Amino acid sequence: IVCLPPLGKLSSDRPSLRLVLNATGVILHTNLGRAPLFRGAARAAAEVASGYSNLEYDLASGERGDRYAHCTHLVSRLTGSESSLIVNNNAAAVSLAINTMALGRDVIV
Fold first, then answer.
1. CA atoms of 109 and 106, how far apart (whole Å)
2. Measured between alpha carbons, how far is 61 from 81 in angstroms, rounded to an integer?
3. H helices within the chain, ranges in order?
4. HSE-up (13 A, CA, CB side) for residue 22
5. CB 36 within 8 A of CB 30
6. pTM here?
7. Residue 9 has pLDDT above 80, yes or no
8. Which of 20, 103, 76, 34 is nearest to 68 (CA)?
9. Is the dihedral of CA 89, 92, 96, 99 positive or negative?
């Protein structure tokens, strides 16, 4: 027996996104919402996202800032590199890698 809620309550009471258990065998299953965030990182992101932030604002100069400035120094420290470049999607990462690895040569895509 399945009890259905009244029609007026179907879509307004609960968001449609739910936590699920990934038992697929695929570690980063893209259909399951991408890679989970560490709970501490999720809490920190939720706190910043609940108001305005300095994402693209340089507090020192009062001018427009660079959104990647918040993480490039961390990646450089982690990897020991002089500098780093952060992109937010795989297509951009592949494009930059191809540009660097195949500089001056033809690439079949």
1. 10
2. 26
3. 39-49, 69-79, 90-101
4. 12
5. no
6. 0.58
7. no
8. 76
9. positive
Which pLDDT tens digit goes with each residue over 28-79?
A: 888 888 888 999 999 999 999 999 999 999 999 999 999 988 999 999 999 9
CA-based nearest residue to 75, from 90, 85, 89, 87? 85
Tell me, what's the pLDDT at 109? 78
Under the banding of pLDDT at 50, 70 and 90, the label for residue 18 is: confident
Which letter, b or e, does each residue of 63-102 get, where b requires 16 or more Cβ atoms within 10 Å of its Cβ?
Answer: eebeeeeeeeeeeeeeeeeeeeeeeeeeeeeeeeeeeeee
What is d(CA 65, CA 88) in angstroms, rounded to the nearest whole number? Answer: 17
